[in-house]
Design a protein that fits this description.
This protein is mainly α and 387 residues long. It is built from 13 helices and no strands. α1 crosses α3, α1 runs antiparallel to α12 and α3 crosses α11.
């Protein structure tokens, strides 16, 4: 049921992404962010007393809300950045975002330590805590200031045309569609697809595989919680490293970093193939892997997945922020639209496809993803201006 819910959620996200620019044109980015966070809180509340119908409705609601939030968050970060600081600010944003993975997963680990099943009182405590945190988030979002827009230099209009007046909802939708058809966006589609595939792996498939591997014994449910902790550590470590080198890479060499991220992921995929039984992604089993399974190696692979994801995502977000400063809502909407479509499809096949085949899909799609990003980066790097 979990994979199906995630597929529904990402399908709803894909719809929300395409209309997020129009929604921002009507109510503004700040209120759009607040509305999206309310949708997420409503979904969390569904699990206080879960019913099949409410859980499925909650998946649709959270998909629509998070779709708007992701596009608008990228807008806030890029709109308050310059070309020389966008790499640093995106890395800072991504690192802060991933602290939730550490805190939430550590909380889950402590609550379920030594438990084979999730008891009702444990579920109530966990969901109530998450709901309280999300309500605090709504209040914090309501205090965010609107972005400050600098005047765009004339030379920069080759990359992103500066609007003379605010967009209406219809114009925002038209600009989003036109932006999706640009050559540089088309080159990035394999990159969008790959991020969707690998997000499915680290967000759900790999943690499910750890929980379904009975060879880990009584610690297998605890490993699910620790997986989120070590994923966050990998994401944050990579984000800090990217912040430290942002001055060197803010105009060029993003392609080099993407290739490094690809090699890190290839290492993780190979080690996962050796360490985790092939049936663990679909059903609980007593199978053995080639070398284990070893819980320490499993968590090391989690760190590698986090490091690679942070590199891929940060380079893409900083590229979009530089290339489309006045169309950033539409740019992030296009990026997240294709990612959500891929997420939805990959969660669908994850219910039946064994782990080695899912890893093979990631390896096959990573190469054209890196190549497409490099071509887009090389084509636009000579046009980037400080703004």
């Amino acid at each position: 049921m979990g994979y199906i819910l995630l597929a529904i959620q990402n399908a709803a996200q894909a719809i929300a992404y395409f209309f997020s620019a129009s929604l921002c044109a009507v109510i503004g980015p700040k209120l759009a962010l607040v509305a999206g966070s309310i949708c997420i809180s409503l979904n969390i509340a569904c699990y206080l007393r879960p019913f099949t119908a409410t859980v499925y409705v909650g998946a649709v609601v959270v998909g629509l809300g998070s779709g708007v939030m992701w596009a608008v968050q990228g807008h806030f970060v890029s709109s308050n950045s310059r070309s020389r600081t966008v790499e640093r600010n995106m890395a800072l944003f991504w690192g802060l975002l991933q602290t939730s993975s550490i805190l939430g997963s550590l909380f889950y680990f402590l609550m379920l330590r030594g438990s084979e099943e999730i008891e009702p009182h444990i579920r109530w405590t966990v969901i109530s805590t998450l709901l309280g945190a999300s309500i605090i988030g709504i209040f914090v979002f309501s205090l965010i200031r609107q972005p400050w827009f600098a005047k765009l230099p004339r030379q920069y209009t080759q990359l992103s045309e500066c609007p003379a007046k605010p967009f209406g909802p219809k114009e925002a939708l038209v600009r989003t569609i036109r932006l999706a058809m640009r050559r540089d966006m088309l080159l990035l589609i394999p990159h969008f697809f790959y991020i969707g595939f690998e997000c499915t792996m680290w967000a759900s498939v790999y943690s499910t595989s750890l929980g379904y591997t009975k060879a880990f014994g009584i610690i297998r449910q605890s490993l699910v919680g620790l997986n989120g902790v070590f994923l966050g550590l990998g994401e944050i470590s990579a984000s800090i490293a990217l912040m430290l080198i942002s001055k060197r890479f803010h105009k060029k060499n993003k392609d080099t970093l993407v290739i490094v991220g690809m090699l890190v992921h290839f290492t993780a995929f190979y080690l996962i193939y050796l360490n985790i039984p092939s049936l663990s992604s679909t059903t609980p089993n007593d199978g053995l892997s080639f070398i284990g399974p070893n819980p320490y190696l499993a968590l090391f692979c989690t760190v590698l997945l986090g490091v690679g994801d942070a590199i891929w995502t940060n380079q893409l977000m900083s590229y979009l922020g530089c290339a489309f400063p006045y169309d950033c809502v539409s740019a992030f909407a296009v990026y997240q639209f294709w990612t959500a479509i891929t997420n939805s499809g990959s969660f669908g096949y994850s219910t039946r496809l064994e782990l080695p085949y899912q890893l093979l899909i990631l390896v096959i799609t990573a190469v054209p993803a890196a190549a497409g990003f490099c071509l887009a980066e090389w084509g636009s790097s000579r046009n980037f201006q400080n703004f």
